[in-house]
Design brief:
InterPro entries: EmrB-like, MFS, MFS_dom, MFS_trans_sf, Sugar_transporter_CS. It is found in: Cell membrane. It is a multi-pass membrane protein. The chain is globular and about 80 Å long. Helix 5 packs antiparallel against helix 12 (about 210-230) and helix 18 (about 400-440) packs antiparallel against helix 20. The chain is built from 20 helices and no strands. It has helices at about 5-10, 15-35, 40-50, 55, 60-70, 75-80, 85-105, 105-135, 140-170, 175, 180-195, 210-230, 235-260, 270-300, 305-335, 335-355, 365-390, 400-440, 445-455, 465-520. The protein is mainly alpha-helical and about 525 residues long. It has three domains: about 1-200, Up-down Bundle (Growth Hormone, Chain: A), CATH 1.20.1250; about 205-260; about 275-520, Up-down Bundle (Growth Hormone, Chain: A).
Length: about 525
């Protein structure tokens, strides 16, 4: 016997809104944990499989890209299968993907498991928001979204710390099994408290052609960016995949403009205020997920932190972001959205600039401070981006606009992590080449470094025949380490430039808001 939301309210009374909220929060917490929990394990995964950083970044970009694409599937899945079946089905697939990642014998299966996890997370998060709107009355939806938002923020805040402990105490494989208990609890709650599909409800046609174009575009674009440095940007393979990505983008745009029921309503991007908001969301997504990817790598590879220490280092920043959200929501309701976004963007730029000045000698509390400033900036900016973007739309377009804004943020995260990974590799190689060219026998610092190494070599049991190759190997490692430090610095400084450029769409939103306010008076 199917049970609707009304039936569940009749059975459980007013308490059902809290039971329904807990049901979706458990699933959402599992997904948001998986978003960041793997980041602190990336150095261990790189070492275990012997892969480069540009390959390992697919663990993050694959998840984010799949999540962005499958967010657009959520509405169709809800209509086709109903809330309970869609929710439980996605959780089951997510759990199977997690187990696959935990037992995978090679890096390709680990990346595949992350893509599947991201796809299911993309479907579930909009489903969870739908439940919130169904179970809370209109005047309490802000409360419901605040509670739900707390769960969304706590996952990324706690993920790195929990993941670091699991990596150090057990293995990197353990991070894939971490979300399973909350998934099982979510399934148990959903069996009793998730509504079934309403009998006789119509099922809309899904835009499979547009979805196919979108997926081909994302895969080819991200693959091209990831492999351009290694394969040579001018090679036939890279140029060919780049042109294919461009062709798929054009095909997607053309199809979405022509089809009567598009996957993504592109016409709303013609509204200046909304388009500016989506551009800001894109940059904020790059900043959120890009910094979450770079900082654990930096403190583990450059400063020699353990995975646990790297995760704990990010926890204060995540908790600060969670605490500032209510204040940011209050400010977004009472002050012009562009003003609040400007504050958040300046804080993000300042945080990235501080990270761009750090090296192996930087004190841990300075890293915590810079990361916290960045997360506070995100906390201030994100609610205002939502309100500022959607206020530019007619009420009938708000639902489509919300999906497009979320899509923009997730796409920004996927492309941002990908480009930052490529930038890190590119700048590291460039600096290594420059440093190598300056390391001659006449270089006093190099001579002193090698002299110290040679004086310690006999104590290490090195023979004169072994001393020469060992000295060269030591010098190569020192050069690569110094180049890596500068590569990280360049990556953070480029991220700073991205946030400075973000002030341009903020200005567009401000100008549009001022014009729209002046029009009724005129």
């Amino acid at each position: 016997m199917s049970q609707t939301t009304e039936d569940l309210f009749h059975r459980y009374g007013p308490a059902y809104k809290w039971l329904g909220t807990v049901t979706v929060m458990l699933g959402t917490l599992s997904m948001t944990l998986a978003t960041t929990i793997v980041n602190v394990a990336i150095p261990d995964i790189m070492g275990y499989f012997g892969i480069a950083q540009t390959e390992a970044q697919w663990l993050s970009t694959g998840f984010l890209a799949a999540m962005a694409a499958f967010m657009l599937v959520s509405a169709w899945a809800l209509q086709a299968f109903g809330m309970k079946a869609a929710y439980i089905g996605c959780l089951v697939v997510f759990m199977l993907a997690s187990v696959l990642g935990g037992v995978a014998p090679n890096e390709d299966l680990v990346i595949l498991s992350r893509v599947l996890q991201g796809a299911m997370a993309g479907v579930i998060q909009p489903l969870a928001m739908t439940i919130i709107f169904q179970v809370f009355p209109e005047k309490q939806r802000g409360l419901g979204m605040g509670i739900y938002g707390l769960g969304v923020i706590l996952g990324p805040a706690l993920g790195p710390a929990v993941g670091g402990v699991l990596v150090d105490w057990i293995s990197w494989r353990a991070v894939f099994f971490m979300p399973l208990p909350t998934c099982l609890m979510a399934i148990g709650f959903a069996l009793y408290f998730a509504p079934d599909k309403t009998e006789g409800s119509p099922s809309s046609r899904f835009d499979w052609i547009g979805f196919g174009f979108l997926c081909l575009f994302l895969v080819s674009l991200l693959w091209t960016l990831s492999n351009g440095q290694r394969e040579d940007w001018r090679s036939l393979l890279i140029v060919g995949t780049g042109l294919f990505a461009l062709l798929m983008a054009v095909a997607f745009i053309a199809w979405e403009l022509l089809t009567p029921k598009p996957l993504l309503n592109l016409r709303i991007f013609a509204i200046p205020g909304f388009a500016a908001g989506c551009a800001i969301s894109f940059c904020y997504g790059a900043g959120l997920f890009g910094s979450t990817y770079l900082i654990p790598l930096f403190v583990q590879q450059i400063q020699g932190f353990t995975a646990t220490a790297a995760g704990l280092l990010l926890m204060p920043a995540g908790l600060a972001m969670a605490l500032i959200f209510p204040v940011a929501g209050y400010m977004a309701d009472r002050y012009p959205a562009p003003a609040v976004i400007t504050l958040g963007t300046v804080m993000l730029a300042g945080s990235s600039y501080m990270m761009g000045l750090m090296d192996v000698y930087t004190l841990p509390w300075l890293i915590v401070l810079s990361a916290t400033i960045g997360r506070l900036g995100l906390g201030f900016g994100m609610p205002a981006i939502g309100t500022g973007s959607l206020r530019a739309l007619d009420y009938s377009l708000v639902s489509q606009g919300s999906g497009a804004a979320n899509f923009s943020r997730q796409i920004g995260g996927a492309i941002g992590v990908n480009l930052l990974s490529v930038t890190l590799d590119w700048r590291t190689m460039q600096h290594a080449r420059v440093i190598t060219d300056t390391q001659t026998a006449a270089n006093a610092l190099t001579g002193e470094l090698l002299a110290r190494f040679q004086s310690m070599a006999p104590a290490a049991g090195l023979t004169p025949d072994q001393l020469g190759p060992a000295s060269l190997g030591f010098l190569r490692q020192a050069i690569y380490f110094q180049a890596s430090v500068r590569g990280f610095q360049d990556s953070f400084l480029i991220l700073t430039g991205v946030f400075v450029l973000t002030l341009i769409p903020v200005w567009v939103m401000w100008r549009y808001t001022r014009v729209s306010k002046a029009e009724p008076q005129a």
